Amino acid sequence: MQMPAPDARVMAKKDHVLRRLMAVLPEDAVIHDPTATRAYECDALTAYRCPPLAAVLPASTAEVAAVLKICHEERVPVVPRGSGTSLAGGALPTADSVILGVARLNEVLEVDYPNRFIRVQAGRTNLSVTGAVEGDGWFYAPDPSSQLACAIAGNIGMNSGGAHCLKYGVTTNNLLGVTLVMMDGTVVEIGGAHLDAAGYDWLGVICGSEGQLGVVTEATLRILPKPEGARPVLMGFDSSEVAGACVADIIRAGVLPVAIEFMDRPCIAATEAFAGAGYPDCEALLIVEVEGCPAEIDEQLALIKRIAEGHRPVALRESGSAEESARIWLGRKSAFGAMGQLGDYMCLDGTIPVSALPEVLRRIGELSAEMGLRVANVFHAGDGNMHPLILFDANAPGDLERCEALGAEILKLCVKAGGCLTGEHGVGVEKRDLMGVQYRPEDLDAQMRVKDVFDPDWLLNPAKVFPLEASAGRRAG
Amino acid sequence: MQMPAPDARVMAKKDHVLRRLMAVLPEDAVIHDPTATRAYECDALTAYRCPPLAAVLPASTAEVAAVLKICHEERVPVVPRGSGTSLAGGALPTADSVILGVARLNEVLEVDYPNRFIRVQAGRTNLSVTGAVEGDGWFYAPDPSSQLACAIAGNIGMNSGGAHCLKYGVTTNNLLGVTLVMMDGTVVEIGGAHLDAAGYDWLGVICGSEGQLGVVTEATLRILPKPEGARPVLMGFDSSEVAGACVADIIRAGVLPVAIEFMDRPCIAATEAFAGAGYPDCEALLIVEVEGCPAEIDEQLALIKRIAEGHRPVALRESGSAEESARIWLGRKSAFGAMGQLGDYMCLDGTIPVSALPEVLRRIGELSAEMGLRVANVFHAGDGNMHPLILFDANAPGDLERCEALGAEILKLCVKAGGCLTGEHGVGVEKRDLMGVQYRPEDLDAQMRVKDVFDPDWLLNPAKVFPLEASAGRRAG
């Protein structure tokens, strides 16, 4: 992974920049001690590390604006950071950059049930947004696996999804408005709490822009009434292709489960050893969950089980109690932790048309065999968002490089199947150099011209998303 | 209503332009006879009329591109037109413009149930999109009142909603991708059929841009499985404020009906006389519909009726049969036709926070009395999208002007309440001069700079959306 050389001009005036930052922020909000900045040297893509020039922790929109104004005047790159849970290196610093962490921006600003929204500061964690309203019977739908830790700011940056997104959509479908601080310190409001807005709709452009267009400090989010109940059914199949075909048939039949989760044998085995969820011994497993009142749940599950039976499942078990449901989900939610017990892994993120699942899974199996690295699959099958986990040994010379090469092949396969390079993790640094697989040079140029408009000097998270050669003429340094 | 003077330069070369258009389109696809162009002189905002230079009816994306390329080279303004059902004058021609009608682009291109989408040419009518999939148990959710006639292209241009949007969202929430022809004839694909896309998300900017950024020729739309059943309940109240408070309480309680429709006394009376739907004699009426399996419907309606009873309804009747449900909806769906029997009317479109309904309805009543024009209200109350109908007499001198003045006051009231100038009809020419109520000059300039990027010569629908003085320096002619 190549990163651009630090800008010598910035490094030389480090002390001057720090002094200016310390003049607008409280003492404990500017972190520059080399030991302390180590905490910000990487995000959840831990294979790549680089301590930043400094990290700042502003506690208000005004402080964010003051920081950006200074960095703009001094031409210092800024890397916005939510909770640092990016799996694509979205919050990876460069040595000449200031990390702008939004963790102190974590207040609930407004809860409005008649108008069905909550307004929060963007550093608030995903799960604590639901936490603020669940006592009254409401919830915020997008639920990334990292929801205990990840920040709404990061969810917006990456357009995050989660297990429940089949029914409720991803972040962009649940975001009503943002307060955005531009690189020059200007504060703008985009969207709002109410239906429609009379100008052009910038929310879509901001959501998923990976912190390259501005820093989101506040967000207005759609909240939903909690359904009366939910119940999962567990299905085991003797091949991944058959499980994939079952998913396509469920969707085609016109039921819309709230989640269809997929796990293959390597993942099932690791999870069972770790969490003991009582999963069947099989090649591929689906967890299909439906929501509603008991009668509606009964009827939907009856149809789903009828479809599954047509695919000759080796196991088919409907949850009989709240405890059993919790145990089924505990397994799925422990899957990433369980895989970590097996060794190092890289978690990929790509999307494909649901109908291509069987073929793509078959081809991933072949690629895994060819390259001699094990791949485990655990993902949101209902909306075609795949998360192949490639197992490798970080201490074995050459293993990381082979892992990266296999990852690239799998993502190319997603694009070829009609899908795309990223579902919910973003491009970050991880998939930067693969953008050319999906886009022609003129497409990339058109995308970079959007950044030109929002951030003409390319100071915001500049070394991400675009191949370094493509953005070289635009980045400072 | 002032429109810009026709561009003399364009008028002088009319024959030359027509010859070029006829060279790339079939003979019957270029309409220029003054009698025939009269069919395109207005849309559903019939108070304003102006025959165009010509109207063209291309039948493919390639033909649309050929037309735009010629008009771009000749610097002739183009006004895109779906089915001409705009209530805001979005498809109103200028004398120097070519109307580009997409009515011949009406094919279904692809239906894909496993991936839950339909791809259609954009001139296809809204209702016939559902028509193409309902036999298999699916539907397309946005349902404008004009759905029998209105085109998907127009739905995208105005970000249309409808009665079912409380639960399913408006067009922007159900649009996955478009084929867009730029003013210079370039064809671009934006979004696609599958989850997420790796570049910036332009769909939000295109949806609702009123034909000012490009011409949409194909659209990929989310389709949904039809719910098992639906059932409405009819509620009468002795004041509009109380009905509004009941709506806010229903939403606050965490039920999400598929529709909450509101009608006030003038509208109820006209509708009863016209359609005989059996509506109660009262000041305000709500139709609340819920969906699901029978048990779920029973439970939701029980809660809704309990809330309604707290507001002392003068009538409360749950539908007991499919026939009764149809009759209840027939009344609502005939409301606009019924109002037309009473005389001329102007249909407004604004949004407000749901919680502000009681206060805004009260204030509309006062304004109506002050200005001496009757106002009837019929609208989607659940998401705060209001449609006050102002009754006037087009033959009475000064009545139209008073009607426009009252409309402007009501829309200002919406903005003041925290809402906005348009919910689903767009700005068009109707609300062009009110944009300054919602936006500062620098906000408008920022919006116009977006159009500068997509259409540097301001040839696409140029006299719409922005106040004429604000856009004067940019428009040709």
UniProtKB/TrEMBL annotation, chains A, B:
<feature type="domain" description="FAD-binding PCMH-type">
    <location>
        <begin position="48"/>
        <end position="226"/>
    </location>
</feature>
<dbReference type="Pfam" id="PF01565">
    <property type="entry name" value="FAD_binding_4"/>
</dbReference>
<dbReference type="InterPro" id="IPR016171">
    <property type="entry name" value="Vanillyl_alc_oxidase_C-sub2"/>
</dbReference>
<dbReference type="InterPro" id="IPR004113">
    <property type="entry name" value="FAD-bd_oxidored_4_C"/>
</dbReference>
<dbReference type="InterPro" id="IPR051914">
    <property type="entry name" value="FAD-linked_OxidoTrans_Type4"/>
</dbReference>
<dbReference type="InterPro" id="IPR006094">
    <property type="entry name" value="Oxid_FAD_bind_N"/>
</dbReference>
<dbReference type="InterPro" id="IPR016169">
    <property type="entry name" value="FAD-bd_PCMH_sub2"/>
</dbReference>
<dbReference type="InterPro" id="IPR016164">
    <property type="entry name" value="FAD-linked_Oxase-like_C"/>
</dbReference>
<keyword id="KW-0560">Oxidoreductase</keyword>
<dbReference type="InterPro" id="IPR036318">
    <property type="entry name" value="FAD-bd_PCMH-like_sf"/>
</dbReference>
<dbReference type="GO" id="GO:0016491">
    <property type="term" value="F:oxidoreductase activity"/>
</dbReference>
<dbReference type="InterPro" id="IPR016166">
    <property type="entry name" value="FAD-bd_PCMH"/>
</dbReference>
<dbReference type="Pfam" id="PF02913">
    <property type="entry name" value="FAD-oxidase_C"/>
</dbReference>
<protein>
    <submittedName>
        <fullName>Glycolate oxidase</fullName>
    </submittedName>
</protein>
<keyword id="KW-0274">FAD</keyword>
<keyword id="KW-0285">Flavoprotein</keyword>
<dbReference type="GO" id="GO:0071949">
    <property type="term" value="F:FAD binding"/>
</dbReference>
